[in-house]
Amino acid sequence: MSLFNEFQSKLNHQHYLIAFSGGLDSTALLSLFAKSRETQPHLQLRAIHIHHGLSPNADQWLAHCQQICRQLNIPLITKKVSINKKRGIEQGAREARYQAISEARLPNEVVVTAHHLQDQTETFFLALKRGSGVKGLSAMQMETELFSMPIFRPLLHCSKTRLESFVRGEKLAWIEDESNADNRYERNFLRNQVLPPLRERWAFFDHAVQTTAQLCYNQQQLLNELLADEFAQRYNENDRTFEISHFAQYSANKQNALLRMWLEKLGEPLLGEQPLAVLLKDVILAKVDANPQYVLLDKTIRRYQNKLYLVPTLSDVSDFCAELRIGQILLLPDYLGDLQLFKTAENLTALWRVGTHEFKSTLPLTAEKITVRFGYSGTVKLHAQDLNRDIKKVWQKLGVPVWQRTRIPLIFYGDKLKSAVGFFENFGA
Questions:
Q1: Residue 119 buriedness (CB in 10 A; 0-12 / 13-18 / 19+)
Q2: Average pLDDT estimate for 1-25
Q3: Signal peptide span per the entry (predicted)?
Q4: Of 336, 360, 358, 353, nearest to 411 (Cα)?
Q5: Residue 363, pLDDT above cutoff 70
Q6: Residue 81 to residue 95: CA distance in whole angstroms
Q7: How far apart are CA 15 and CA 212, in angstroms?
Q8: Which pLDDT value is given to residue 56?
């Protein structure tokens, strides 16, 4: 079967957003879609080019992509991105690229990439280098979800040689990225030095790797199927927590598999055996009265009341103190939203908005100065007939995790705590 006929047989959607770098692979992909539209006029196509700014030729590449898209009559979106290099240029560029695509994508569009057979082999070897299990060794699948977007890789079983033959037959030019020769990048090192002798020795090596990747994927799907009911009982969709009651009774293999399912559900990179062992020992099996945590790159896994939470790495807001005036919108620090005070004939209402959530507290009228702070270590009284209680006990009673307690805005009248907005009013002040 011809490459074009193979490609057409895989098109099960109508709206596609095509990742177009201007290189050989994505030029083949774009041309295949343009030809498919001639026989399937219902296809709705857009292309997107990401300008990373890493090459001095980036502007020329952009102009080339614009010219090719005009030639093929496919609308082109262009995005310039900044790269966070903390996790390396390759990973930073990948994350910036998919973020830009996510912002440009329409709700009904499937994102299409030009990954091919040799790309699959490189991805498999990179996973092998990281010490990945069957999940990582599954490499890439033709249809999957990534960064909460549907991803389609119709060329995954096609060799680069076939793509080059097709593009030459269509008389289309393509870009050669000079960085592809730089073996400091891991993928280039594999492509240029490691894999060529293997392919020379074993002609069907890439196909064998593809078969192995597919077998790993099938095994992972079976494992997920067998653990689905157990995971559903432990995972809370509302707060994205993971229940760990009686977790120590499971085998290490089952523990690791469930933890990986949780991290994958949250869109986090999979942890290897050693990090999982540390997470289990230092967090899950830590003493009952401990406040354990495991730090990832920019997030932290924490435990509270037999649940695991994945939370952002938090900044200290204990020094914050600001006056709150009626009608004013007060911006809170460290992405904690805003706070507003409303007055009625009988009382005051404090409204805290953070993300999509709103919290309210009703307060008595006062002539005292009203301030907002974070963190308090005294006692509180939850109703008029209640006893004064240590605020730590109150937070425990309300089920508020330790790290959240110092991030809830507290309203003071003078030096007296009156309310933790949305959680309690202090009748003892």
A1: buried
A2: 94
A3: none
A4: 360
A5: yes
A6: 10
A7: 32
A8: 87
Does residue 429 register a pLDDT over 80?
A: no
At 1, list the tokens.
């079967």
pTM: 0.75
CA distance 53 to 237: 39
pLDDT band at 52; cut points 50, 70, 90: confident
Backbone angles phi, psi at 178, to 5 degrees: -60, -25
Determine contact, residues 309/327, Cβ cutoff 8 Å: no
26 marked as part of a ligand binding site = yes
Does 25 carry a binding-site annotation?
A: yes
Cβ-count burial 30-64 (b if 16+ within 10 Å, e if not): bbbbbbbbeeeeebebbbbbbbbeeeeeeeebbeb
Q: Which residues pair with 152 in a beta bridge?
A: 112, 143
Residue 270 has pLDDT above 80, yes or no: no
Q: Which helix (H) or strand (E) holds 360?
A: strand 357-364
138 is in an annotated binding site: no
Q: How confident is the model at residue 87 (pLDDT cuts 50, 70, 90)?
A: low
Residue position matching structure tokens 């992509």: 65
- Residue 336 sits at the vertex; the CA angle it makes with 362 and 354, to the nearest 5 degrees, is 60
Mean pLDDT of 130-135: 84
Q: How far apart are alpha carbons 335 and 104 in whole angstroms?
A: 25
Which stretch of DSSP H or E encloses residue 330?
A: strand 329-331
- Please compute, for residue 406, the number of CA atoms within 13 A of its CA located in the half-sphere on the CB side: 12
- Span between the terminal Cα atoms of the chain, in Å: 81
Collapsed DSSP state (helix, strand, coil) of residue 404:
helix
In order, the DSSP letters of 63-110 are HHHHHHHHHHT--EEEEE----GGG-HHHHHHHHHHHHHHHH--TTPE
CA 230 to chain centre: 24
Reported as a single tens digit per residue, the pLDDT across 209-267 is 999 999 999 999 999 999 999 999 999 998 899 999 999 999 999 999 999 999 989 88
Q: Identity (one letter) of the amino acid at 127?
A: A
389-403 burial, b if ≥16 CB within 10 A, otherwise e? eebeebbeeeebbee
Q: How many CB atoms are closer than 10 A to CB 241?
A: 21
Cα-to-chain-centroid distance, residue 84: 15
